[in-house]
Write a structure and sequence with these properties.
Elements (H helix, E strand, L loop, with lengths): L41 E4 L2 E4 L9 E5 L4 H14 L3 E7 L5 E2 L4 H6 L6 E4 L5 E5 L6 H13 L3 H10 L1
Parallel strand pairs: 3-4, 4-5
Antiparallel strand pairs: 1-2, 1-5, 3-6, 6-7
Helix pairs in contact: 1-3
């Protein structure tokens, strides 16, 4: 449960790996640190109680953000356009979001602000996160995907144009 690892498919957010506050073999310590498994939190989605784990995976990247994460939605669209790779975006927070976080459990577990984001790989591991909004969110997310996929968006656009 506490597995955390580094890989070319994980992009550092610049923070050190969180230390375990209790024995890591006996107690689970949830974190959204890149390289960790996405934490489970109950939310209400489409009128049903679901786990955050039910909102991700299914063979797709998912970007989890809060009520202030509109810039990340635009960034996900830029990734899809540049790489042809769909990125699901799910907002979690108060009324008006895709998933209702009634007791702010996700807000506390996510370790990001309401305008930040957590990028989750198809295998439910955190690929990257941003603690808060970025002014140039599309450029930032394109760079993150370039690192994860091992190719830049510009190189991808050239190869698509040549084909």
């Amino acid at each position: 449960m506490n597995q955390r690892y580094g890989s070319t498919a994980v992009v550092s957010d610049g923070t050190p790996m969180p230390a375990f506050s209790r024995d890591h073999e006996l107690y689970y310590q949830a974190t959204t640190w890149p390289g960790a498994h996405l934490p489970h939190v109950w939310v209400e989605h489409q009128g049903q109680r679901k786990s955050t784990l039910d909102l991700v995976g299914k063979g797709r990247f998912t970007l989890l953000t809060g009520i202030g994460g509109d810039g990340w939605k635009t960034a996900a669209a830029a990734v899809e356009k540049a790489y042809g790779l769909p990125v699901d975006v799910v907002t979690i927070g108060p009324q008006g979001c895709d998933a209702l976080d009634s007791y702010a459990d996700w807000y506390r577990q996510s370790e990001v602000d309401e305008d930040g984001c957590v990028l989750v790989r198809p295998d439910m591991y955190v690929a990257w996160c941003a603690r808060e909004a970025a002014v140039n969110a599309p450029d930032v997310l394109l760079d993150v995907f370039g690192q994860i996929l091992g190719r830049s968006a510009k190189a991808q656009a050239k190869s698509v144009a040549a084909a």
